Amino acid sequence: MPAKEKKFAAPPKPHSLKRIVKKILDDPEYGRYIHHQVVKARKGDRDAVRTVRAHFEPERSELTRLGLRSSHFKRMAGCPTTTRFALLDFAAHV
Question: Which of 14, 48, 65, 93 has the fewest CB atoms found within 10 Å of its own CB?
Answer without folding.
Answer: 93
